[in-house]
Amino acid sequence: MFDESGKEMGLLNALGLSNGESKVYLRLLAQPEGEMLDKIVTAFGIPAAEAEDSLKSLADRGLVKISSNRVQVVQPRVVLQRILELRKRTLDEQIARETSVALELERLLEPVYWENRLGIRPEEIIEPLRDLPEMELRTTRILGTAAKEVFILAQTFGWYGKVREALFQAHDRGVRMKVLMTVSDESTKERAKELRDLGIQVRQLAEEWYPVRGTLVDHQELVFLIWATKKSDVPRPIYYRPHYTKNQGFIRIFRDAFLNRWEEGRAI
Question: Of 101, 158, 189, 204, which has the highest C-beta tally within 10 A?
Fold first, then answer.
């Protein structure tokens, strides 16, 4: 019989078992044939309520098995592996919850840190967008406010369908538009033709590959992303997270890059 204050009890407690669970398991361990359910409650020297709760908890976690009202322990090696797996799952869930809390705190506290040191909030410089669909949505939104001029730097302009209506509406408002893209197949030819037929200026990018994509509206609002790899080089091309900005530094860099390539490009 195991000493209830002995090393085994302490080690089981250290792995998360309660005193009652540890007592029930250790007592059953010494009984090869197991024990009847009613005797565990009455003969193990454990309060009935504690014995019932401990037995249920052990059974729920697969640490004991019950058959025909008889309870037997599962082999210690298997039990310990299950305990570790359950503990790991619990800890992983706790870490995931705490990571979520930490990210939320970072989102709340970082702006305060930088605003008090730089006198400006980071989102006033550049705002990260979650993914490409959110980038397309924000592009549609700023196109809806365009009043004078729009620059679009694309490759195949595969997202044209997502912003088509907003482009048409901007054209109807008299907004001047320039689109730089690569025409390389029938679908890109069709896009370029539809834009030209609408009266939008379209030019072919002189470079085979340029890693920046973006839309600049009225030299005031910019949505952009930067590709880290060429689509033709890897199965899953990598892009740097899309961003939105009204910062004139970013806008100046994009505008200069666009206008330089506009001069180098040829009319389609």
Answer: 204
